[in-house]
Write a structure and sequence with these properties.
The complex is a heterodimer of chains A (about 150) and B (about 700).
Chain A (H helix, E strand, L loop, with lengths): L1 E4 L2 E4 L8 H8 L18 E4 L2 E4 L12 E3 L12 H9 L8 H14 L5 H8 L9 H16 L2
Chain B lengths: L14 H6 L37 E3 L5 E5 L8 H13 L6 E5 L16 H28 L6 E4 L2 E4 L5 E3 H5 L32 H5 L15 E5 L8 E6 L1 H4 L4 E6 L2 E6 L2 H9 L2 E5 L9 H7 L9 H9 L2 E9 L11 E7 L2 E6 L4 H12 L6 E4 L14 H13 L3 E4 L2 H7 L6 E9 L5 E9 L14 E7 L15 H18 L4 H8 L3 H14 L10 E10 L2 E11 L5 E11 L6 H20 L5 E2 L2 E2 L17 E7 L17 H13 L5 E2 L11
Helix pairs in contact in B: 2-3, 10-11, 13-17, 16-17
Chain lengths: ~150, ~700
C-alpha cells in the first residue's frame, strides 16, 4: 500500500484496516499526531486528507490511498511556519500543549475554507477538539490572529 | 565559610580530579538532552551534592549556560517558564541562557511532587535563594579575579563588570564549569517583586516551537531500538477475580510475548497492532462480588462513614438559639481528570538498573514504588518525566510505569505502555464523591451565629469557612469509597466551597440581603474582600441591568495562598435550558510571576470548573464504569465556554503563591447561585445540570 504523507510517498506493509493514526505514529514515527480517545471524539489526532480535517484514529489507512495526507510535521512549507503555527507561537495560548497539533490542523482546515471566521464559526468548527487545560478563548484569539496573518498576505 | 577566598569550594582542583568526585561516573553532561532517550542512562550525571548546596540546583557551565535542576514537573502549568524567569531575575541573565532539568530522579534534588500549588511558593523561593547565592558567589569570584571590591561589581547579562575599571568577565569564565559548592544562603536579599525586570513579565512558553510543530516528545511518543509495545489484560469490572484464562492463541502469534505472573497478564509485541491483536486473542473468565452503584452512592457514603466528632452541645444550643436557621444537604459526584495524554511509560532494564520515562506528578514517589516492587535500591531506578500532557492532580501515581517495568523485566526488552482512554477512565482514580450537610443559625441583620458543616468522604481541604462565625463545628468523615479516588485540582476545596457558598447565598436570600453585601458583611480578610469587590466591579454587579430570565451569582474563597471571587450570569429559558452568559473572576496570589501564564491558569481553572459544575459525572454500576470514553463522558468544549473576564490583582508587596488550584473552587457555586437568583431553584448537587436542563423546584 502506497500512502502520500507530507508530499512523500511511503510504501507501507500493513493491512488496509489499520488506522491512519497507527500508521503515522507507529510505522512512520510521525508522533506529532496524538492519540486522545480512539473514537474521533477529541480531535487530538486531526490531520488533513486532501486539505480537509479528518480524525486519523477513525480513518482507515486504506481509505487514504491515492490521497494527500498532511500532518503537523508537514504543515510548514519551505521552513516557514503555517500562519496558524505563527499565530500560536505569537499568542502563546497553550498549557500542556498535547492538543496543539490537532487544534492547529483543525484551525488550518477551517481557515482554508473560511479565511475570516467569526467567533461563532471558530467555536463550531473547533468544537470537536478538546483542550482539557481549558485554553479555548486563547485558541480562538490565536485563530483570529492567524486569520489576520493570512488575509494580510 | 570565607566565600571570598574559596568561592567555589574547590578552586584548585582540575577537571579530571573534580569529576572523579562523582563516584567515577563519566561526566559527559548531555544536559540539553537528558530527558531524551538517546542519552545513555548511566553516563550523564553531575556529581551529586547535598540539596543545601547551590550546585544541587544551579550549575553555570563554562559556556555561560545556566542549568537549573528541579524535581517539579511540567504538566501544562508553564512552570518551566516561570521558574526560569525567577532564576533569570536573581542571576540577572536572559531566560534564553537557562535550561531547566525537571523531574529526573538521577539529576535533581529530592522532591515530594508537583501538587498543592507549591511550585511557585516553595520551589520558586528555593531557586530564587539559590540563584541569589550563586550571584553573590560570582561577584566574590570576580572580586578576586579583578582584585577589586565586591561593592564596585555588577552582575548582568551573564557577565560581572567592574564599574571602576570597566573590566568584564563572563559567568562561565568565572566558574570554569565547576559545580558551585556553597551553602545556599537565605540571608542574601532577594530582588523585590516590585523591582522585577524578568520575573513579573509575560514571557512565552519555553520550547514553544517544539509544541506547535509536533516535535516535542511526550512519553507516549517515545521510541527506542528493540522496543516492544505492551497491553495488559484488564478485568471487566472492579474487584474481579480471574477464574480461567486461555493464552494459547496469543502465544501462537508470531512476534508476540505473553507474560503471566499470577493474575498479571500482559502481551508485548514489536508493533502496537500485534500487541492489540494478541490481547484480543486471550480468553478469560472472571467472577466479581456485588458492588455499590451510582444510584446508591450518597446513601452508601453516609452509611459507611466514620463519624469523627459528634455534634457538640454548644453548636446544638447556638443553632437552636439563632433567630433563623437553615439546613441543607449537598452532594458531589465522582469526576475524572481526563488528562489528554493518558498514562504512559517507557521502561528499560540494563542489568539490575531500571530507567523509566513516564508522565507523573511524583517522579520520586514512582521511583520509590518501582524500587519496592522489584526489590532493588532506589539508586538503581531512574525516573524521568518529559513535559507531560497534563495531570490536574490525576497523575500522582505511576501505574503505567510499574506495569511497563514489569513487562520489560520479563521480556528483557525496552517496553512502552500507553493506556487507552478507556483504561484511563477505568483504572486511574477519580475526584472523590461526597455528601455535605450544612446547618446554620443567623440573625435577620445578616450576622451568622452558628455553623455546622460535615463533609462525608470528599475530603477536608477548605473545610473551614472564611466567614466570621462565633460558633462553628467543621468535620470531615472519611468513608468507604466504591471507586478508587485521589487528588484532583483543588482537592475537596471545590466540594466544600460549593456547599458553603451555596448555603451562604441561600441565607442571604432568606433574609433578603444582596449576596455580595452579605459576604462583605461577614468577612474580615481584606484580600478576600478586595477580590470580591474587584470581581463585582468588573462584572457590573450593581450597575449592569439584568435581562429577562437572567440571574447573577457570586462565590469566593481562600485556598492555598490564593484569594478568589467569581461572578456568574446565567440565563434560563422558559423551557429550562440554562446558558452561562458570562463569568468574571478576580484572583490574588501575591506578586505575579508571569501575567499571561497566570491568566492561563485562571482561565483553565474556570473552563475545567465548568465541567464539574454543569455536567461531568462518572456513571457506574456494580463495579463497571458506564461512561469510560469521551463520547459519553462530557468535558467542556469550545461551545461551552462563556464570555470570561479575568481580573488579576498584582500584590508585588506579597510573595507569590501558586495558582493551579484556587481559581477553580468558586466557579460552581457562582453558577449555582446565579441559577438561584434567576429561578428561585436552589440546586444542591454537582453537577448542576446532568441532563442539560434545569429541574425547577
Amino acid at each position: 500500500m502506497i500512502l502520500t504523507i507530507n508530499n512523500i510517498r511511503h510504501e507501507v506493509n500493513i493491512d488496509a484496516e489499520a488506522t491512519l493514526l497507527s500508521i503515522l505514529r507507529d510505522e512512520l514515527d510521525l508522533t506529532g499526531t496524538k492519540y486522545g480517545c480512539g473514537e474521533g471524539a477529541c480531535g487530538a489526532c486531526t490531520v488533513h486528507v486532501n486539505g480537509l480535517a479528518v480524525r486519523s484514529c477513525t480513518t482507515s489507512a486504506g481509505s487514504v490511498v491515492g490521497k494527500s495526507v498532511t500532518t503537523i510535521e508537514g504543515l510548514e512549507t519551505n521552513g516557514i511556519l503555517h500562519p496558524v503555527q505563527q499565530a500560536f507561537l505569537k499568542s502563546d495560548p497553550l498549557q500542556c500543549a498535547y492538543c496543539a497539533s490537532g487544534m492547529i490542523m483543525s484551525a488550518a482546515a477551517l481557515l482554508r475554507e473560511k479565511p475570516a471566521p467569526s467567533t461563532a464559526d471558530i467555536n463550531t468548527a473547533m468544537n470537536g477538539n478538546i483542550c482539557r487545560c481549558g485554553t479555548y478563548p486563547n485558541i480562538v484569539k490565536a485563530i483570529k490572529l492567524a486569520s489576520t496573518i493570512l488575509t494580510a498576505k | 565559610m570565607n566565600a571570598t577566598e574559596n568561592p567555589l569550594a574547590l578552586p584548585n582542583i582540575d577537571r579530571r580530579q573534580f569529576f572523579k568526585l562523582g563516584g567515577g561516573l563519566a561526566v559527559a553532561i548531555i544536559l540539553q538532552d537528558v530527558i531524551a532517550f538517546a542519552a545513555d542512562p548511566s553516563g550523564t550525571i553531575l556529581s551529586p551534592v547535598p540539596s543545601g548546596q547551590v550546585a544541587a540546583w544551579i550549575h553555570i557551565g563554562e559556556d555561560n549556560m545556566v542549568t537549573v535542576f528541579t524535581g517539579k514537573v511540567e504538566v501544562g502549568q508553564n512552570i518551566r517558564t516561570s521558574l526560569t524567569q525567577q532564576v533569570a531575575e536573581e542571576l540577572n541573565v536572559d531566560v534564553s541562557s537557562i535550561k531547566m532539568v525537571m523531574g529526573d530522579t538521577d539529576l535533581v534534588p529530592f522532591d515530594n511532587g508537583t501538587y498543592g500549588s507549591l511550585t511557585t511558593p516553595q520551589m520558586g523561593t528555593q531557586l530564587r535563594h539559590t540563584a541569589a547565592t550563586a550571584r553573590q558567589a560570582l561577584l566574590d569570584l570576580a572580586a578576586k579575579h579583578f582584585s577589586s571590591e565586591v561593592t564596585s561589581l555588577k552582575a548582568a547579562g551573564g557577565m560581572v563588570s567592574d564599574q571602576k575599571s570597566g573590566k568584564k568577565i563572563s559567568f562561565g569564565a568565572l566558574t570554569k564549569g565547576q559545580q558551585i559548592l556553597i551553602p545556599i544562603s537565605k540571608q542574601i536579599p532577594l530582588i523585590n517583586p516590585a523591582e522585577w525586570k524578568t520575573a513579573g513579565k509575560t514571557t512565552p512558553k519555553v520550547n514553544d516551537r517544539t509544541f506547535i510543530t509536533g516535535g516535542h516528545k511526550y512519553v507516549s511518543d517515545m521510541k527506542m531500538p528493540d522496543m516492544l509495545y505492551a497491553k495488559i489484560l484488564r478485568p471487566p469490572v472492579y474487584q474481579a477475580k480471574l477464574l480461567t484464562v486461555d493464552l494459547d492463541a496469543a502465544k501462537a502469534m508470531s512476534g508476540v510475548t505473553v507474560i503471566q505472573d499470577g493474575t498479571f497478564i500482559a502481551v508485548a509485541a514489536a508493533s502496537l497492532r500485534n500487541a492489540n491483536s494478541a490481547l484480543l486473542a486471550i480468553k478469560a473468565t472472571w467472577e466479581s462480588p456485588d458492588q455499590p452503584s451510582k444510584a446508591q452512592l450518597f446513601e452508601y457514603l453516609v452509611k459507611n462513614a466514620r463519624e469523627t466528632e459528634p455534634e457538640t452541645s454548644e453548636i446544638k444550643q447556638s443553632l437552636t438559639a439563632s433567630e433563623q436557621q437553615h439546613s441543607d444537604t449537598y452532594t458531589i459526584d465522582y469526576i475524572a481528570h481526563v488528562p489528554l495524554e493518558t498514562r504512559s511509560a517507557l521502561a528499560q532494564w540494563i542489568g539490575d538498573k531500571l530507567t523509566v520515562w513516564t508522565g507523573t506528578q511524583r517522579p520520586f514517589g514512582v521511583q520509590q514504588d518501582l524500587a519496592a516492587k522489584f526489590d532493588i535500591p532506589k539508586e538503581n531506578v531512574r525516573v524521568m518525566v518529559p513535559d507531560t500532557g497534563s495531570g490536574y492532580g490525576g497523575k500522582h501515581s505511576g501505574e503505567a510505569a510499574l506495569e511497563a517495568a514489569h513487562i520489560a523485566k520479563e521480556t528483557k526488552r525496552p517496553v512502552k505502555l500507553a493506556w487507552t482512554r478507556k483504561e484511563e477512565f477505568t483504572w486511574a482514580y477519580f475526584r472523590p464523591a461526597g455528601v455535605i450537610k450544612v446547618k446554620s443559625g443567623f440573625k435577620k441583620d445578616g450576622a451568622i451565629n452558628a455553623w455546622k458543616f460535615e463533609n462525608y468522604n470528599s475530603g477536608n481541604a477548605g473545610l473551614k469557612p472564611q466567614y466570621r462565625i462565633p460558633n462553628q463545628q467543621n468535620n470531615f468523615h472519611p468513608s468507604l469509597t466504591p471507586l478508587k479516588q485521589g487528588s484532583y485540582r483543588g482537592l475537596a476545596a471545590t466540594a466544600n466551597a460549593f456547599a458553603r457558598e451555596s448555603h451562604i447565598s441561600d441565607i442571604a436570600r432568606m433574609i433578603d440581603m444582596d449576596q455580595l453585601e452579605f459576604r462583605l458583611k461577614n468577612l474580615d480578610d481584606a484580600r478576600l474582600k478586595a477580590v470580591l469587590e474587584a470581581a463585582a466591579k468588573s462584572f457590573g454587579w450593581h450597575t449592569k441591568q439584568k435581562r429577562k430570565g437572567c440571574g447573577y451569582g457570586i462565590a469566593c474563597d481562600y485556598v492555598k495562598g490564593g484569594y478568589v471571587a467569581t461572578c456568574a450570569e446565567v440565563m434560563v429559558t422558559e423551557d429550562n435550558l440554562v446558558k452561562i452568559v458570562r463569568i468574571t473572576e478576580a484572583f490574588d496570589c501575591g506578586a505575579i510571576v508571569n501575567p499571561h501564564h497566570l491568566e492561563h491558569q485562571i482561565l483553565g481553572a474556570i473552563v475545567q470548573g465548568l465541567g464539574g459544575a454543569l455536567f461531568e459525572s462518572v456513571d457506574f454500576e456494580n463495579g463497571k464504569i458506564l461512561n469510560p470514553n469521551l463520547s459519553d463522558y462530557r468535558v467542556p468544549r469550545f461551545k461551552d465556554t462563556p464570555e470570561i473576564t479575568i481580573v488579576m490583582v498584582n500584590r508585588t508587596d506579597i510573595a507569590p503563591s501558586g495558582a493551579g488550584e484556587a481559581p477553580i473552587v468558586s466557579v460552581a457555586p457562582a453558577i449555582r447561585n446565579a441559577i438561584l437568583q434567576a429561578t428561585g431553584t436552589a440546586l444542591r448537587s454537582l453537577p448542576l445540570l446532568p441532563t442539560g436542563k434545569l429541574e425547577r423546584s
